[in-house]
Design a protein that fits this description.
This protein has about 400 residues and is of the alpha/beta class. Helix content is about 60%, strand content about 10%. The protein has a five-stranded mixed β-sheet, covered by helices on one side. A two-stranded antiparallel ribbon has the order 1-2. A hairpin with a 7-residue loop joins β6 and β7. α1 crosses α9, α8 packs across α9 and α11 (about 325-355) runs antiparallel to α12 (about 360-375). About 30% of the residues are buried.
Protein backbone atom coordinates (compact mmCIF):
# COMPACT_ATOMS: atom_id res chain seq x y z
CA UNK A 1 0.00 0.00 0.00
CA UNK A 2 1.45 3.36 -1.08
CA UNK A 3 -0.43 5.38 1.53
CA UNK A 4 0.88 4.08 4.83
CA UNK A 5 3.32 5.30 7.50
CA UNK A 6 5.79 2.59 6.45
CA UNK A 7 5.78 3.89 2.88
CA UNK A 8 6.14 7.50 4.05
CA UNK A 9 9.19 6.55 6.10
CA UNK A 10 10.71 4.73 3.13
CA UNK A 11 10.17 7.77 0.89
CA UNK A 12 11.97 10.03 3.35
CA UNK A 13 14.86 7.56 3.71
CA UNK A 14 15.20 7.35 -0.07
CA UNK A 15 15.46 11.12 -0.37
CA UNK A 16 18.11 11.25 2.37
CA UNK A 17 20.10 8.62 0.50
CA UNK A 18 19.72 10.50 -2.78
CA UNK A 19 20.92 13.68 -1.05
CA UNK A 20 24.06 11.90 0.18
CA UNK A 21 24.79 10.58 -3.33
CA UNK A 22 24.23 13.95 -4.99
CA UNK A 23 26.33 15.76 -2.38
CA UNK A 24 29.23 13.37 -2.95
CA UNK A 25 29.12 14.00 -6.71
CA UNK A 26 28.71 17.73 -6.16
CA UNK A 27 31.79 17.94 -3.94
CA UNK A 28 33.80 16.01 -6.50
CA UNK A 29 32.67 18.38 -9.24
CA UNK A 30 33.25 21.49 -7.13
CA UNK A 31 36.90 20.59 -6.52
CA UNK A 32 37.50 20.77 -10.27
CA UNK A 33 35.94 24.22 -10.72
CA UNK A 34 37.70 27.54 -11.01
CA UNK A 35 38.40 29.26 -7.76
CA UNK A 36 35.85 31.75 -6.48
CA UNK A 37 34.77 32.99 -3.06
CA UNK A 38 31.72 30.70 -3.22
CA UNK A 39 33.67 27.59 -4.26
CA UNK A 40 36.16 28.29 -1.45
CA UNK A 41 33.30 28.74 1.05
CA UNK A 42 31.59 25.56 -0.11
CA UNK A 43 34.74 23.43 0.21
CA UNK A 44 35.75 24.97 3.55
CA UNK A 45 32.32 24.36 5.09
CA UNK A 46 31.41 21.09 3.40
CA UNK A 47 31.08 19.30 6.75
CA UNK A 48 28.03 21.50 7.49
CA UNK A 49 26.26 19.95 4.49
CA UNK A 50 26.71 16.29 5.41
CA UNK A 51 23.43 15.52 7.15
CA UNK A 52 20.25 15.87 5.11
CA UNK A 53 17.61 18.45 6.02
CA UNK A 54 14.94 19.95 3.73
CA UNK A 55 16.89 23.24 3.84
CA UNK A 56 20.08 21.53 2.69
CA UNK A 57 18.19 19.83 -0.14
CA UNK A 58 17.01 23.29 -1.19
CA UNK A 59 20.61 24.57 -1.07
CA UNK A 60 21.91 21.55 -3.00
CA UNK A 61 19.38 22.13 -5.79
CA UNK A 62 20.51 25.76 -6.13
CA UNK A 63 24.15 24.66 -6.28
CA UNK A 64 23.15 22.14 -8.97
CA UNK A 65 21.92 25.05 -11.09
CA UNK A 66 25.21 26.87 -10.48
CA UNK A 67 27.25 23.84 -11.61
CA UNK A 68 25.03 23.38 -14.65
CA UNK A 69 25.69 26.96 -15.71
CA UNK A 70 29.43 26.51 -15.19
CA UNK A 71 29.42 23.31 -17.24
CA UNK A 72 27.55 25.02 -20.10
CA UNK A 73 29.58 28.22 -20.31
CA UNK A 74 29.98 29.60 -23.82
CA UNK A 75 33.44 31.01 -24.76
CA UNK A 76 33.39 34.79 -24.29
CA UNK A 77 34.88 35.31 -27.79
CA UNK A 78 32.26 33.15 -29.48
CA UNK A 79 30.75 34.96 -32.48
CA UNK A 80 29.06 32.20 -34.45
CA UNK A 81 25.52 33.47 -34.04
CA UNK A 82 22.89 32.32 -31.56
CA UNK A 83 23.96 28.72 -30.87
CA UNK A 84 22.15 25.82 -29.25
CA UNK A 85 24.44 26.20 -26.22
CA UNK A 86 23.46 29.85 -25.86
CA UNK A 87 19.80 28.90 -26.15
CA UNK A 88 20.21 26.48 -23.23
CA UNK A 89 21.94 29.15 -21.13
CA UNK A 90 19.32 31.77 -22.02
CA UNK A 91 16.43 29.51 -20.98
CA UNK A 92 18.13 28.52 -17.73
CA UNK A 93 18.66 32.13 -16.66
CA UNK A 94 15.29 33.28 -17.97
CA UNK A 95 13.54 30.73 -15.75
CA UNK A 96 15.59 31.58 -12.67
CA UNK A 97 15.20 34.22 -9.94
CA UNK A 98 18.15 36.02 -11.56
CA UNK A 99 16.36 36.54 -14.87
CA UNK A 100 16.20 40.29 -14.23
CA UNK A 101 19.99 40.57 -13.76
CA UNK A 102 20.71 38.44 -16.82
CA UNK A 103 18.30 40.38 -19.06
CA UNK A 104 19.67 43.67 -17.78
CA UNK A 105 23.14 42.68 -18.99
CA UNK A 106 21.71 41.51 -22.32
CA UNK A 107 19.91 44.82 -22.79
CA UNK A 108 23.21 46.70 -22.52
CA UNK A 109 24.35 44.93 -25.68
CA UNK A 110 26.41 42.16 -24.09
CA UNK A 111 26.37 38.72 -25.67
CA UNK A 112 24.63 35.78 -24.00
CA UNK A 113 28.05 34.45 -22.94
CA UNK A 114 29.18 37.70 -21.32
CA UNK A 115 25.76 38.32 -19.74
CA UNK A 116 25.81 34.82 -18.30
CA UNK A 117 29.35 35.25 -16.95
CA UNK A 118 28.42 38.53 -15.26
CA UNK A 119 25.21 37.10 -13.79
CA UNK A 120 27.07 34.02 -12.59
CA UNK A 121 29.25 36.23 -10.37
CA UNK A 122 26.12 37.68 -8.75
CA UNK A 123 24.67 34.18 -8.36
CA UNK A 124 27.88 33.02 -6.64
CA UNK A 125 27.60 35.79 -4.08
CA UNK A 126 23.94 34.96 -3.52
CA UNK A 127 24.78 31.30 -2.89
CA UNK A 128 27.51 32.24 -0.46
CA UNK A 129 25.05 34.49 1.39
CA UNK A 130 22.43 31.74 1.36
CA UNK A 131 24.90 29.28 2.86
CA UNK A 132 26.13 31.70 5.49
CA UNK A 133 22.66 32.81 6.58
CA UNK A 134 20.78 29.53 6.51
CA UNK A 135 23.39 26.77 6.77
CA UNK A 136 25.88 28.46 9.12
CA UNK A 137 23.16 30.60 10.80
CA UNK A 138 25.14 33.85 10.66
CA UNK A 139 23.72 37.37 10.15
CA UNK A 140 25.62 37.89 6.91
CA UNK A 141 24.48 40.91 4.89
CA UNK A 142 25.26 40.47 1.20
CA UNK A 143 24.03 42.92 -1.46
CA UNK A 144 23.74 40.13 -4.05
CA UNK A 145 21.65 37.90 -1.78
CA UNK A 146 18.07 37.43 -2.90
CA UNK A 147 15.41 37.45 -0.20
CA UNK A 148 14.03 33.95 0.48
CA UNK A 149 10.51 34.36 1.95
CA UNK A 150 10.04 30.57 1.90
CA UNK A 151 12.92 30.34 4.38
CA UNK A 152 11.43 33.02 6.61
CA UNK A 153 13.43 35.98 5.26
CA UNK A 154 11.99 39.48 5.63
CA UNK A 155 13.51 42.87 4.86
CA UNK A 156 13.62 45.59 7.51
CA UNK A 157 15.01 48.77 6.03
CA UNK A 158 18.22 47.82 4.25
CA UNK A 159 18.80 44.69 6.32
CA UNK A 160 17.59 41.15 5.77
CA UNK A 161 16.32 39.47 8.91
CA UNK A 162 14.09 36.48 9.77
CA UNK A 163 10.60 35.94 11.05
CA UNK A 164 10.18 34.84 14.65
CA UNK A 165 10.36 31.07 15.01
CA UNK A 166 8.77 28.60 17.41
CA UNK A 167 8.17 24.86 17.55
CA UNK A 168 4.68 23.51 18.18
CA UNK A 169 4.40 20.14 19.91
CA UNK A 170 1.27 18.66 18.38
CA UNK A 171 0.02 15.21 19.25
CA UNK A 172 3.50 13.70 18.90
CA UNK A 173 4.37 15.96 15.97
CA UNK A 174 6.91 18.80 16.10
CA UNK A 175 5.96 21.59 13.72
CA UNK A 176 7.89 24.77 12.99
CA UNK A 177 5.96 28.05 12.78
CA UNK A 178 7.34 31.41 11.64
CA UNK A 179 5.46 34.65 12.30
CA UNK A 180 6.06 38.39 12.17
CA UNK A 181 5.06 39.04 15.79
CA UNK A 182 4.52 37.31 19.13
CA UNK A 183 0.83 38.21 18.94
CA UNK A 184 0.48 36.38 15.62
CA UNK A 185 2.54 33.47 16.96
CA UNK A 186 0.14 32.98 19.86
CA UNK A 187 -2.98 33.34 17.68
CA UNK A 188 -1.82 31.12 14.82
CA UNK A 189 -0.35 28.49 17.15
CA UNK A 190 -3.74 28.12 18.82
CA UNK A 191 -5.63 27.81 15.53
CA UNK A 192 -3.18 25.27 14.10
CA UNK A 193 -3.19 23.20 17.31
CA UNK A 194 -6.99 22.95 17.22
CA UNK A 195 -7.00 22.11 13.50
CA UNK A 196 -4.46 19.31 13.95
CA UNK A 197 -6.45 17.84 16.86
CA UNK A 198 -9.62 17.85 14.74
CA UNK A 199 -7.76 16.19 11.84
CA UNK A 200 -6.33 13.51 14.11
CA UNK A 201 -9.71 12.72 15.71
CA UNK A 202 -11.82 12.57 12.55
CA UNK A 203 -9.29 11.56 9.88
CA UNK A 204 -6.43 9.58 11.48
CA UNK A 205 -4.87 8.59 8.15
CA UNK A 206 -4.78 12.26 7.11
CA UNK A 207 -2.98 13.03 10.34
CA UNK A 208 -0.43 10.28 9.63
CA UNK A 209 0.42 11.91 6.29
CA UNK A 210 0.58 15.36 7.86
CA UNK A 211 2.85 14.05 10.60
CA UNK A 212 5.15 12.54 7.97
CA UNK A 213 5.53 15.38 5.50
CA UNK A 214 4.79 18.87 6.87
CA UNK A 215 7.76 20.44 8.69
CA UNK A 216 7.18 24.20 8.79
CA UNK A 217 4.35 26.68 8.27
CA UNK A 218 4.86 30.29 7.19
CA UNK A 219 1.80 32.60 7.08
CA UNK A 220 1.17 34.63 3.92
CA UNK A 221 -1.00 37.75 3.78
CA UNK A 222 -1.66 38.22 0.07
CA UNK A 223 -5.37 37.85 -0.70
CA UNK A 224 -4.61 36.29 -4.09
CA UNK A 225 -2.81 33.33 -2.50
CA UNK A 226 -4.48 30.51 -0.61
CA UNK A 227 -1.37 28.40 -0.03
CA UNK A 228 1.70 27.23 -1.91
CA UNK A 229 4.94 25.30 -1.52
CA UNK A 230 8.08 24.45 -3.51
CA UNK A 231 9.26 21.08 -4.76
CA UNK A 232 12.86 21.98 -3.86
CA UNK A 233 11.92 22.73 -0.22
CA UNK A 234 10.23 19.62 1.18
CA UNK A 235 7.84 20.19 4.04
CA UNK A 236 7.47 23.99 4.12
CA UNK A 237 3.90 25.25 3.65
CA UNK A 238 3.11 28.90 2.94
CA UNK A 239 -0.51 29.27 4.07
CA UNK A 240 -2.89 32.22 4.18
CA UNK A 241 -3.76 32.31 7.86
CA UNK A 242 -5.29 35.79 7.67
CA UNK A 243 -8.24 35.55 5.28
CA UNK A 244 -9.49 31.96 5.56
CA UNK A 245 -11.98 30.32 7.92
CA UNK A 246 -11.44 27.23 10.08
CA UNK A 247 -12.77 24.76 7.50
CA UNK A 248 -10.40 26.33 4.95
CA UNK A 249 -7.50 25.96 7.40
CA UNK A 250 -8.14 22.22 7.72
CA UNK A 251 -8.20 22.03 3.93
CA UNK A 252 -5.08 24.15 3.38
CA UNK A 253 -2.96 22.21 5.87
CA UNK A 254 -3.71 18.92 4.14
CA UNK A 255 -3.65 20.31 0.59
CA UNK A 256 -0.08 21.56 0.97
CA UNK A 257 0.83 18.36 2.78
CA UNK A 258 -0.38 16.56 -0.34
CA UNK A 259 2.08 18.60 -2.39
CA UNK A 260 4.89 17.69 0.00
CA UNK A 261 3.97 14.01 -0.29
CA UNK A 262 3.93 14.17 -4.09
CA UNK A 263 7.14 16.22 -4.17
CA UNK A 264 9.01 13.45 -2.37
CA UNK A 265 8.22 11.23 -5.36
CA UNK A 266 9.09 13.99 -7.84
CA UNK A 267 12.43 14.67 -6.14
CA UNK A 268 13.23 10.97 -6.47
CA UNK A 269 11.94 10.12 -9.94
CA UNK A 270 9.88 11.15 -12.95
CA UNK A 271 6.19 10.27 -12.77
CA UNK A 272 4.82 11.87 -15.92
CA UNK A 273 5.97 13.27 -19.23
CA UNK A 274 5.32 16.98 -19.30
CA UNK A 275 4.21 18.28 -22.71
CA UNK A 276 3.35 21.95 -22.41
CA UNK A 277 0.07 21.68 -24.33
CA UNK A 278 -2.86 23.15 -22.41
CA UNK A 279 -5.40 20.53 -23.46
CA UNK A 280 -6.81 19.29 -20.15
CA UNK A 281 -9.74 21.02 -18.51
CA UNK A 282 -9.17 21.81 -14.84
CA UNK A 283 -12.47 21.96 -12.90
CA UNK A 284 -10.65 23.71 -10.05
CA UNK A 285 -9.41 26.60 -12.19
CA UNK A 286 -12.13 26.45 -14.87
CA UNK A 287 -9.49 26.65 -17.58
CA UNK A 288 -7.26 24.47 -19.73
CA UNK A 289 -3.99 23.29 -18.21
CA UNK A 290 -1.08 21.02 -19.14
CA UNK A 291 -0.88 17.45 -17.84
CA UNK A 292 1.36 18.46 -14.93
CA UNK A 293 -1.34 20.83 -13.65
CA UNK A 294 -4.17 18.31 -13.53
CA UNK A 295 -1.97 15.44 -12.30
CA UNK A 296 -0.84 17.54 -9.34
CA UNK A 297 -4.40 18.76 -8.77
CA UNK A 298 -5.85 15.25 -8.66
CA UNK A 299 -3.22 13.98 -6.24
CA UNK A 300 -3.45 16.94 -3.85
CA UNK A 301 -7.20 17.67 -3.90
CA UNK A 302 -7.88 14.02 -3.17
CA UNK A 303 -6.64 14.66 0.36
CA UNK A 304 -9.24 17.40 0.79
CA UNK A 305 -11.87 14.87 -0.24
CA UNK A 306 -10.42 12.35 2.23
CA UNK A 307 -10.64 14.85 5.10
CA UNK A 308 -14.13 16.12 4.31
CA UNK A 309 -15.52 12.65 3.60
CA UNK A 310 -14.17 11.44 6.96
CA UNK A 311 -15.83 14.41 8.69
CA UNK A 312 -19.06 13.88 6.73
CA UNK A 313 -19.21 10.22 7.79
CA UNK A 314 -18.83 11.04 11.48
CA UNK A 315 -21.91 10.55 13.62
CA UNK A 316 -21.17 13.90 15.22
CA UNK A 317 -18.75 16.48 13.80
CA UNK A 318 -18.46 18.44 17.01
CA UNK A 319 -15.87 17.55 19.65
CA UNK A 320 -14.19 18.99 22.75
CA UNK A 321 -11.74 20.64 20.36
CA UNK A 322 -14.13 22.54 18.09
CA UNK A 323 -17.85 23.16 17.60
CA UNK A 324 -18.72 23.62 13.93
CA UNK A 325 -21.46 26.09 13.06
CA UNK A 326 -24.42 24.99 10.91
CA UNK A 327 -22.89 26.76 7.90
CA UNK A 328 -19.50 25.14 8.48
CA UNK A 329 -21.12 21.70 8.56
CA UNK A 330 -22.93 22.45 5.30
CA UNK A 331 -19.62 23.58 3.84
CA UNK A 332 -17.96 20.29 4.86
CA UNK A 333 -20.66 18.26 3.08
CA UNK A 334 -20.36 20.60 0.09
CA UNK A 335 -16.57 20.28 -0.08
CA UNK A 336 -16.80 16.48 0.05
CA UNK A 337 -19.32 16.43 -2.81
CA UNK A 338 -17.49 19.10 -4.80
CA UNK A 339 -14.16 17.31 -4.65
CA UNK A 340 -15.77 13.97 -5.49
CA UNK A 341 -17.27 15.39 -8.68
CA UNK A 342 -14.12 17.20 -9.80
CA UNK A 343 -11.81 14.28 -9.03
CA UNK A 344 -14.01 11.84 -10.94
CA UNK A 345 -14.04 14.21 -13.90
CA UNK A 346 -10.25 14.62 -13.86
CA UNK A 347 -9.62 10.89 -13.53
CA UNK A 348 -11.16 10.40 -16.99
CA UNK A 349 -8.63 12.88 -18.41
CA UNK A 350 -5.77 11.14 -16.63
CA UNK A 351 -6.92 7.80 -18.07
CA UNK A 352 -6.48 9.28 -21.55
CA UNK A 353 -2.98 10.52 -20.65
CA UNK A 354 -2.09 7.08 -19.31
CA UNK A 355 -3.39 5.45 -22.49
CA UNK A 356 -1.05 7.72 -24.43
CA UNK A 357 1.93 6.69 -22.24
CA UNK A 358 2.30 10.09 -20.58
CA UNK A 359 2.05 8.68 -17.03
CA UNK A 360 4.48 5.97 -15.95
CA UNK A 361 3.67 2.95 -13.77
CA UNK A 362 4.51 4.56 -10.43
CA UNK A 363 2.66 7.75 -11.32
CA UNK A 364 -0.40 5.77 -12.35
CA UNK A 365 -0.33 3.52 -9.30
CA UNK A 366 -0.53 6.58 -7.05
CA UNK A 367 -3.60 7.88 -8.87
CA UNK A 368 -5.43 4.55 -9.14
CA UNK A 369 -4.99 3.85 -5.43
CA UNK A 370 -6.68 7.17 -4.73
CA UNK A 371 -9.44 6.53 -7.25
CA UNK A 372 -10.24 3.13 -5.74
CA UNK A 373 -10.77 4.88 -2.42
CA UNK A 374 -12.81 7.66 -4.02
CA UNK A 375 -15.41 5.45 -5.73
CA UNK A 376 -16.26 3.72 -2.45
CA UNK A 377 -18.17 6.85 -1.50
CA UNK A 378 -20.36 7.18 -4.59
CA UNK A 379 -23.59 6.33 -2.74
CA UNK A 380 -22.72 8.46 0.30
CA UNK A 381 -22.10 11.49 -1.92
CA UNK A 382 -25.74 11.39 -2.99
CA UNK A 383 -26.77 11.64 0.68
CA UNK A 384 -24.23 14.35 1.49
CA UNK A 385 -25.49 16.47 -1.37
CA UNK A 386 -28.86 16.71 0.39
CA UNK A 387 -27.13 18.19 3.43
CA UNK A 388 -25.30 20.99 1.58
CA UNK A 389 -27.85 23.64 2.53
CA UNK A 390 -27.10 26.96 0.84
CA UNK A 391 -24.32 25.30 -1.19
CA UNK A 392 -26.76 23.15 -3.20
CA UNK A 393 -26.89 25.81 -5.91
CA UNK A 394 -23.08 25.64 -6.22
CA UNK A 395 -23.24 21.87 -6.71
CA UNK A 396 -25.90 22.29 -9.37
CA UNK A 397 -23.75 24.87 -11.18
CA UNK A 398 -20.67 22.64 -10.94
CA UNK A 399 -22.49 19.67 -12.45
CA UNK A 400 -23.62 21.85 -15.35
CA UNK A 401 -20.06 23.14 -15.88
CA UNK A 402 -18.57 19.64 -15.84
CA UNK A 403 -21.19 18.31 -18.24
CA UNK A 404 -20.41 21.10 -20.71
CA UNK A 405 -16.64 20.60 -20.30
CA UNK A 406 -17.03 16.87 -20.85
CA UNK A 407 -18.73 17.45 -24.22
CA UNK A 408 -16.09 19.93 -25.34
CA UNK A 409 -12.82 18.60 -23.95
CA UNK A 410 -13.01 14.84 -23.36
CA UNK A 411 -10.79 13.06 -25.86
Amino acid sequence: MLFSPKNYSQLKTRLKNKYAQKLKLQLKSMKKKRNSSFVAWYLDDQDELKNYTPLKWFFLKQVETYLFLLDHEVPLNYDGGFSEAEDVIFEKWNNSEFADTFLKHLNTGKSVARSSAATLKTFEQHLKGLGERHILKTKSQNSAYRLQPSLGDVRKGKEVTKLLETTLHLEGKELGLMTSSLKEMKHFSHRIEIAVKVIKKFSPSSYERFQAFTETIIPIKQDEFVSFSHQELPGTSMINLYNRDFVDLLDDLLHENGHHHLNYYLNLQTLIKEPIDNIYYSPWRRTLRPLRGIYHAYFTFFWAFKLFSDLARAKEMDSIFYLFSKEEKEKIYFRAVEEFLMLNFTFQELKWARKNELINNTGWKLITEQQKELVKYRNKVVLWEKKCGKFKKDIKALKKTLKTAEKIYFK
